[in-house]
C-alpha cells in the first residue's frame, strides 16, 4: 500500500484485536465476504433441489445424484462457512464467557446433526436447505457488521493517510532531496511548498504561511504561522512555502498521539458495554434453558421432528448479534465523529459520564481567556482620538520584544498601523522612549510618571484606577518633557467563544459554572462578570495555587455535584485527574494526554458543550440499541419455541436467521444516525 511505510512509523500499524466483537475481531470483513459468496453459491442448489421448496413452488427436479446435493454441499457450507463460528465458540468456552459465537455454533451444530440424521432416515425432515441458509445469512450479518465497524474506524486510518509518502529535505548545500517520510530524523530541515502537507512535527525556521489545521483542531479557518511557530504533521501550507525543522517523528508526533487516543477510547470498556456483555451471557443461559424446555415439551407431545426444528430456531433467534453490535458500533462512530471535530476521546468512561455532569469548573488562563495580553481599553486626553494614541504608542513600542509591546503593536495594526519611530531606547523598570516625527515620547507605568514628576488628569486617573481594579496593566503615553496624552489598558482577553460555551452549558442543564484561577479576587471577579457569571449560582475560586486546584474539585463533589474540570493540562493535571470528567484544552502536552479523559485539540471552550452533546447522543443510541436487542429477544424466543404453534404461528430456523440479521441492520442504521450530530462550532 502507498502509505504502509509511514503508517508503521507513525503508529498506525497493527490490528486491534479488541475491537468490535472480541471473539471474532481477528477476522476482517474480506474473510466474511469471501465465505458468504461461496456459501451462497453452494446454498442455491441445495435450496432449489429441496423437496420442501419444490412442493412450495410446484416444480420438480430429478437427476442422478440429486439426493446428495444436500449432504455434500450442506456439509461444505457447515464446515467452511461455519468454521469462524465454531472457532469462536471454542474460545468462549475456554474463556468461560458464553456469548454470541457459542449460540451460533450451537444452532448450526444442532441443525447439522439433525440434517445428517435426516439423510440416514432417523428423521423425516428436509433440513439441509435451512442449515445452509442459516450459515449463509449469519455470514452476511457478520460481514456487514465488520464492514460497518471498519468504516467507523476509517477516520483513524484516514489520519495516517494525511501524511505524505515522502518529504523534501534541505541539504547542507541548500539544495533539496526527496526522501521517504520513514527516513526522516529529528533536526532535519524540510521544505514545505504551497499546497503541501507538513511531513513531521516541527518548528518553522524560515518563511511564513497560512496553515490549514482543521484535521487537528476541527477549525476550518487557516491559521498564520511564521518563524518559531510549531507546526503539526498532516497540516497544509495553503499559500506560501516554509522551511520546518523536524522535532518529532513516528510515535512521538501529535498525529500518532491522536490515533492512539481514539483507538484506546474505541476499545476501552465502559459501563454500557459491560451491561451488554452481561446481557449476552444471560441470554446464553436463557436460550439454553429455553432450548432444553422446548425439546422436553415437544418430545412429550410426541413430535420429535418439531422438537428439533423448534430447538434449532430458539438457538438461532437468541443469537445476540444486534446486542453485540449495539455498543461497539456506537463507540466507534462517536469517537470517530468526535475526532473529525477536534475532540479526542481518550477514555470512553469520561464520554459516558459527561451526560451526567452538573458542574463545570474552568481554569481561567488559557481556557476562558486567551492566555496573552491584548489592549482592552484606550483613553485619550490630549491627542485627537484613540486611533492616534494607539498609533503613537505602537510607534514607541515597535522595536520592543516585550509581550505588552507586541499587544500594543497588534492593536495598532488593526487601526492603520504604528507611527514610524527612531531612537528607540528601553528604560529598565520604567518603560520605553522613542522619537516620532521629531517629537520624543515615552510609554510606561506609574514608575515612569513618578520619575517624570507628572500627575494624571482626573478623568484619566479614574479610568486607570478602574482598569487596575480589574487586574489590567495600565501604560501611559507621555509627550516629553511631561504632557500625558492618554493611557492604555492591557489584560488577558476573555475569549468571545467562552461566553457562548457557558451559555450553551447552562441551556443543557449544567447547574453550576465555576472558574478557578491564581489571580487576585478583583481580577477573577471582573473576568467572571465579563463572562456573565450569575451571582449566588456560579462560583469563582480566586488566588488558588496549582497544588490546591484538585481540592476545589473535591469541594464541589462533596456537595453531590458531578464535576467536569476544564484546563490546559499543564498545572491543572491533579484537578483533571480528580474530576469525574477531565477535559484538557489543547492536545500538545503530555500532561493533558495522561491526566484528561477528553482532549480538545483546539483552544475553543465551546468544545466542552460539544462533548456533552456527543455524550447524550451516544448514550441515547446505546440505550436504544440495547432496548431493541433485548425487546426483540423477549418477543422472538417464545415464537421460536413454538408457543403459538397452536394458532399456526411458527418460525423456521431460516426465517429466524433472517429476522436476526434484520435486527442487526436496524441497530447498525440507528448507530449511523450519530453522524448527524453537529459538534464543530459555527
From TrEMBL:
<feature type="region of interest" description="Disordered">
    <location>
        <begin position="1"/>
        <end position="25"/>
    </location>
</feature>
<dbReference type="InterPro" id="IPR001757">
    <property type="entry name" value="P_typ_ATPase"/>
</dbReference>
<dbReference type="InterPro" id="IPR059000">
    <property type="entry name" value="ATPase_P-type_domA"/>
</dbReference>
<keyword id="KW-0067">ATP-binding</keyword>
<feature type="transmembrane region" description="Helical">
    <location>
        <begin position="279"/>
        <end position="301"/>
    </location>
</feature>
<feature type="transmembrane region" description="Helical">
    <location>
        <begin position="127"/>
        <end position="143"/>
    </location>
</feature>
<keyword id="KW-0406">Ion transport</keyword>
<feature type="domain" description="P-type ATPase A">
    <location>
        <begin position="162"/>
        <end position="262"/>
    </location>
</feature>
<dbReference type="GO" id="GO:0016887">
    <property type="term" value="F:ATP hydrolysis activity"/>
</dbReference>
<dbReference type="Pfam" id="PF00702">
    <property type="entry name" value="Hydrolase"/>
</dbReference>
<dbReference type="GO" id="GO:0055070">
    <property type="term" value="P:copper ion homeostasis"/>
</dbReference>
<dbReference type="InterPro" id="IPR023214">
    <property type="entry name" value="HAD_sf"/>
</dbReference>
<dbReference type="GO" id="GO:0005507">
    <property type="term" value="F:copper ion binding"/>
</dbReference>
<feature type="transmembrane region" description="Helical">
    <location>
        <begin position="102"/>
        <end position="121"/>
    </location>
</feature>
<keyword id="KW-0547">Nucleotide-binding</keyword>
<dbReference type="Pfam" id="PF00122">
    <property type="entry name" value="E1-E2_ATPase"/>
</dbReference>
<dbReference type="InterPro" id="IPR018303">
    <property type="entry name" value="ATPase_P-typ_P_site"/>
</dbReference>
<protein>
    <submittedName>
        <fullName>Heavy metal translocating P-type ATPase</fullName>
    </submittedName>
</protein>
<dbReference type="InterPro" id="IPR008250">
    <property type="entry name" value="ATPase_P-typ_transduc_dom_A_sf"/>
</dbReference>
<feature type="transmembrane region" description="Helical">
    <location>
        <begin position="69"/>
        <end position="90"/>
    </location>
</feature>
<keyword id="KW-0186">Copper</keyword>
<keyword id="KW-0472">Membrane</keyword>
<keyword id="KW-1003">Cell membrane</keyword>
<keyword id="KW-0812">Transmembrane</keyword>
<feature type="transmembrane region" description="Helical">
    <location>
        <begin position="36"/>
        <end position="57"/>
    </location>
</feature>
<dbReference type="InterPro" id="IPR044492">
    <property type="entry name" value="P_typ_ATPase_HD_dom"/>
</dbReference>
<keyword id="KW-0479">Metal-binding</keyword>
<dbReference type="GO" id="GO:0005524">
    <property type="term" value="F:ATP binding"/>
</dbReference>
<dbReference type="InterPro" id="IPR036412">
    <property type="entry name" value="HAD-like_sf"/>
</dbReference>
<dbReference type="InterPro" id="IPR027256">
    <property type="entry name" value="P-typ_ATPase_IB"/>
</dbReference>
<dbReference type="InterPro" id="IPR023299">
    <property type="entry name" value="ATPase_P-typ_cyto_dom_N"/>
</dbReference>
<keyword id="KW-0187">Copper transport</keyword>
<dbReference type="GO" id="GO:0005886">
    <property type="term" value="C:plasma membrane"/>
</dbReference>
<feature type="transmembrane region" description="Helical">
    <location>
        <begin position="654"/>
        <end position="674"/>
    </location>
</feature>
<feature type="transmembrane region" description="Helical">
    <location>
        <begin position="626"/>
        <end position="648"/>
    </location>
</feature>
<feature type="transmembrane region" description="Helical">
    <location>
        <begin position="321"/>
        <end position="345"/>
    </location>
</feature>
<keyword id="KW-0813">Transport</keyword>
<comment type="similarity">
    <text>Belongs to the cation transport ATPase (P-type) (TC 3.A.3) family. Type IB subfamily.</text>
</comment>
<keyword id="KW-1133">Transmembrane helix</keyword>
<dbReference type="InterPro" id="IPR023298">
    <property type="entry name" value="ATPase_P-typ_TM_dom_sf"/>
</dbReference>
<keyword id="KW-1278">Translocase</keyword>
<dbReference type="GO" id="GO:0043682">
    <property type="term" value="F:P-type divalent copper transporter activity"/>
</dbReference>
Amino acid at each position: 500500500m502507498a502509505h504502509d511505510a509511514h503508517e508503521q512509523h507513525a503508529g498506525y500499524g497493527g490490528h486491534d484485536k479488541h475491537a468490535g466483537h472480541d471473539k471474532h475481531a481477528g477476522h476482517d470483513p474480506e474473510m466474511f465476504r469471501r465465505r458468504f459468496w461461496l456459501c451462497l453459491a453452494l446454498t442455491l442448489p441445495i435450496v432449489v433441489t429441496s423437496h420442501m421448496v419444490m412442493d412450495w413452488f410446484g416444480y420438480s427436479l430429478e437427476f442422478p445424484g440429486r439426493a446428495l446435493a444436500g449432504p455434500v454441499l450442506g456439509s461444505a457450507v457447515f464446515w467452511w462457512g461455519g468454521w469462524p463460528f465454531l472457532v469462536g465458540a471454542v474460545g468462549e468456552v475456554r474463556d468461560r464467557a458464553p456469548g454470541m459465537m457459542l449460540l451460533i455454533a450451537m444452532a448450526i451444530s444442532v441443525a447439522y446433526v439433525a440434517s445428517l440424521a435426516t439423510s440416514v432416515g432417523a428423521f423425516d425432515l428436509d433440513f439441509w436447505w435451512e442449515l445452509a441458509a442459516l450459515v449463509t445469512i449469519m455470514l452476511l450479518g457478520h460481514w456487514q457488521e465488520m464492514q460497518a465497524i471498519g468504516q467507523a474506524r476509517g477516520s483513524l486510518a484516514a489520519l495516517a493517510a494525511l501524511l505524505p509518502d515522502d518529504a523534501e529535505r534541505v541539504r547542507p548545500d541548500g539544495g533539496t532531496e526527496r526522501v521517504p517520510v520513514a527516513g526522516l530524523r529529528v533536526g532535519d530541515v524540510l521544505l514545505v511548498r504551497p499546497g503541501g502537507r507538513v511531513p513531521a512535527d516541527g518548528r518553522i525556521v524560515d518563511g511564513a504561511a497560512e496553515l490549514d489545521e482543521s484535521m487537528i483542531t476541527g477549525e476550518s479557518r487557516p491559521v498564520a504561522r511564521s518563524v518559531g511557530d510549531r507546526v503539526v504533521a498532516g497540516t497544509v501550507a495553503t499559500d506560501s512555502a516554509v522551511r520546518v525543522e523536524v522535532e518529532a517523528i513516528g510515535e512521538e508526533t501529535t498525529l500518532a498521539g491522536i490515533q492512539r487516543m481514539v483507538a484506546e477510547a474505541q476499545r476501552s470498556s465502559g459501563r454500557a458495554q459491560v451491561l451488554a456483555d452481561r446481557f449476552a451471557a444471560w441470554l446464553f443461559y436463557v436460550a439454553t434453558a429455553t432450548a432444553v424446555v422446548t425439546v422436553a415439551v415437544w418430545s412429550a407431545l410426541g413430535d420429535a421432528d418439531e422438537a428439533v426444528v423448534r430447538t434449532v430456531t430458539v438457538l438461532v433467534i437468541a443469537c445476540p448479534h444486534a446486542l453485540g453490535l449495539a455498543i461497539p458500533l456506537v463507540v466507534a462512530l462517536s469517537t470517530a465523529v468526535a475526532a473529525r471535530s477536534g475532540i479526542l476521546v481518550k477514555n470512553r468512561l469520561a464520554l459516558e459520564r459527561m451526560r451526567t455532569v452538573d458542574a463545570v469548573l474552568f481554569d481561567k488562563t488559557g481556557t476562558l481567556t486567551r492566555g496573552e495580553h491584548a489592549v482592552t481599553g484606550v483613553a485619550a486626553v490630549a491627542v485627537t482620538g484613540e486611533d492616534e494614541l494607539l498609533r503613537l504608542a505602537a510607534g514607541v513600542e515597535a522595536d520592543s520584544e516585550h509581550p505588552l509591546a507586541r499587544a500594543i503593536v497588534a492593536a495598532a495594526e488593526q487601526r492603520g498601523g504604528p507611527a514610524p519611530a527612531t531612537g528607540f531606547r528601553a528604560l529598565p523598570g520604567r518603560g520605553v522612549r522613542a522619537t516620532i516625527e521629531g517629537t520624543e515620547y515615552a510609554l510606561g507605568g506609574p514608575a515612569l510618571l513618578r520619575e517624570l514628576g507628572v500627575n494624571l488628569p482626573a478623568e484619566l486617573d479614574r479610568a486607570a484606577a478602574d482598569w487596575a481594579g480589574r487586574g489590567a496593566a495600565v501604560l501611559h503615553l507621555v509627550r516629553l518633557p511631561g504632557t500625558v496624552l492618554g493611557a492604555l489598558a492591557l489584560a488577558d482577553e476573555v475569549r468571545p467563544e467562552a461566553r457562548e460555551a457557558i451559555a450553551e452549558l447552562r441551556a443543557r442543564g449544567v447547574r453550576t459554572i465555576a472558574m478557578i484561577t491564581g489571580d487576585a479576587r478583583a481580577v477573577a471577579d471582573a473576568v467572571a462578570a465579563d463572562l456573565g457569571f450569575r451571582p449566588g449560582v456560579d462560583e469563582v475560586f480566586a488566588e488558588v495555587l496549582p497544588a490546591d486546584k484538585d481540592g476545589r474539585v473535591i469541594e464541589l463533589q462533596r456537595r453531590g455535584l458531578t464535576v467536569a474540570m476544564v484546563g490546559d493540562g499543564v498545572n491543572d493535571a491533579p484537578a483533571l485527574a480528580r474530576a469525574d470528567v477531565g477535559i484538557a484544552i489543547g492536545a500538545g502536552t503530555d500532561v493533558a494526554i495522561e491526566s484528561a479523559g477528553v482532549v480538545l485539540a483546539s483552544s475553543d471552550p465551546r468544545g466542552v458543550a460539544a462533548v456533552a452533546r456527543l455524550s447524550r447522543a451516544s448514550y441515547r443510541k446505546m440505550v436504544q440499541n440495547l432496548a431493541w436487542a433485548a425487546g426483540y429477544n423477549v418477543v422472538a424466543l417464545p415464537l421460536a419455541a413454538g408457543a403459538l404453534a397452536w394458532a399456526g404461528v411458527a418460525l423456521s430456523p431460516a426465517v429466524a436467521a433472517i429476522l436476526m440479521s434484520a435486527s442487526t441492520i436496524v441497530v447498525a442504521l440507528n448507530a449511523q444516525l450519530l453522524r448527524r450530530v453537529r459538534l464543530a462550532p459555527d
